[in-house]
Amino acid sequence: MAAPVPPGSIIVADWHRSPESREFFKKILHKKKRREFGLLETPVMPPHLKADTVRYKVFISGKSGVGKTALAARLAGHHIPNLHYETTGLETSVVFWPVKLRENCRVLFFHFQLWDCGENAMRRFDHMLPSCKEQVDAILFLFSFTDHGSFEDISNQMSRITDPSDRVVRFVVGTKFDLFMHTDVTESEITRFQEVWGVPVFRVGGDVSGGFGEIAPLLNALAENLWHQDCVHASSASLPHVCHPEDTSREVIV
Length: 254
Ligand SMILES: Nc1nc2c(ncn2[C@@H]2O[C@H](COP(=O)(O)OP(=O)(O)OP(=O)(O)O)[C@@H](O)[C@H]2O)c(=O)[nH]1
Ligand SMILES: [Mg+2]
What we know:
Blueprint: H1 22-26, E1 29-30, E2 33-34, E3 52-61, H2 68-76, E4 90-100, E5 107-117, H3 119-124, H4 128-133, E6 138-144, H5 148-161, E7 169-175, H6 187-197, E8 201-203, H7 216-236, E9 252-253
Guanosine-5'-triphosphate is lined by residues 62, 64-70, 80-87, 118-119, 175-176, 178-179, 204-205.
């Protein structure tokens, strides 16, 4: 498991705010909303704005009601349900996210396939967890700021689901941060958790304004750490010094 990299060290931070990125972000929008992509679809760029696509599987883990389905909807730009409808099985959704690499100014579309499994379905069916973990590239461990028990459970989940030797990016996401008046989890607990586990903690919550500002920190960090993970793997496999994760098993769609 590679240590997390500082934000902005591999990709251009806040690139989504620059005029240069506009043409790329337009391709993931339709009538000012996020475009829905089919299983085999990718954003198509004109030849002078070439951008490869790299695919990653991301599993969202956490207790029932912490907000796994809401987070998937938030990241994909879908409607976030106000009520808790238990996810009765497994749902996947696709998120495309363009980033610019600092090293060579190359633009890549990250294709995140989000795997969201209802917690009760996970308990009931033994095959769910192995399916979610199979060839997974990143796991988001969720807790809710309004439920201290869900925060306490994160350490157990991380030890149970992952092993330090796994090639997987691990992030913790605290949901319902908008309900901070009712928060059950203190900042010092979060700081201590980050020190002990060496895993970054992100905070999400509230309405999505329609812009990318709210989801950009998490999606950029995912892209950056997944790319770094592939670079570390490529160099340990004695590939050339320059990082070319496409030389590994990572599928790049041109
Ligand atoms: N205020 C607020 N409510 C949220 C947030 N995230 C989720 N919720 C609410 O929390 C409830 C549960 O969210 P879900 O996403 O359905 O929970 P889940 O983790 O998918 O639950 P299971 O499918 O049962 O495992 C819903 O009513 C959501 O609207 C948030 O960030 N802020
Ligand atoms: Mg759900």
